[in-house]
Amino acid sequence: MRARIGIVDDHPAVILGVASVLNAQSDLLVVGTAASVPELLAQGPPLDGVLLDLSLADDSTPTENLQALAALEVPVLVYTSGDRPHLVREAARAGAAGMLRKSELPDAIVLAVRTMLAGEVPASADWAAALDFDPDFVHVHLSPREAEVLGLYASGETADRVAALLYISRDTVLDHIRRIRSKYARVDRAARTKVDLYRRAVEDGLIPLGDDADR
């Protein structure tokens, strides 16, 4: 089954080019394109991931757009044609999965999208440099939904129970946990086990400190 991708960009030529690259792959399919996030959401296509231009003509901010897209509960890869580290840092804080330059070769674009869909952070020197330069981006930034999932799961709930409490599927819970582990791994904070996740959640203030001896 091909992963369903949405693209938000206000340059038709860019959309056409990126869509052509992705649609040429046997495992990827662009099912929605729009010049703004509200327009994409209004179309209502089922999506597995989104490519979002960092700077749009409607003067929306990365934070506003990523918060709106969070309702889809899918990873969002931001991409840009310019050097705007402040927007990259804002997108990172708002929960973006990673960053891609529009000037990348087709193979790099495909790899970044596949990496995003796998719940991992697409490798990008620009992304890493922007975050390393940001003294406020100290640990790892989780989206509001990821924070909810981690708080419940690390407190001892099963994936099935978390799914029931948040009215999402078990597979979605597991996808969130994979992305959470990937984000912590990227900043060298191990989160391979449930005990690790509990400790990270305590460190980041998502759950109160308690006895983790039996976790």
Structure description:
With 215 residues, the chain is an alpha/beta fold. The protein has two domains: 3-132, Response regulator (Rossmann fold, 3-Layer(aba) Sandwich); 144-203, Orthogonal Bundle (Arc Repressor Mutant, subunit A). 47% of the residues lie in helices and 13% in strands. It has ten helices and five strands, in the order βαβαβαβαβαααααα. It has helices at residues 12-23, 37-43, 62-69, 85-93, 106-117, 125-132, 144-154, 159-166, 170-186, 194-203, and strands at residues 3-8, 28-34, 49-53, 76-80, 98-101. Strands 2-1-3-4-5 form a five-stranded parallel sheet, with helices on both faces. β1, α1 and β2 form a beta-alpha-beta unit. The model is unreliable at 211-215 (pLDDT under 50).
Summarize this, please?
With 215 residues, the chain is an alpha/beta fold. 47% of the residues lie in helices and 13% in strands.
Distance between the termini: 37 Å
Q: What fraction of residues sit in β-strands?
A: 5-15%
Low-pLDDT regions:
211-215
CATH superfamily of the largest domain: Response regulator
Structural class: alpha/beta
Largest sheet strand order: 2-1-3-4-5
Total number of domains = 2
Largest pleated sheet: 5 strands, parallel
CATH names the topology of the largest domain as: Rossmann fold
**Element-by-element helix/strand order:** EHEHEHEHEHHHHHH
Kindly list the characteristics that best describe this protein.
single chain, 215 residues, alpha/beta, Rossmann fold, Arc Repressor Mutant, subunit A, 2 domains, 47% helix, 13% strand, disordered C terminus
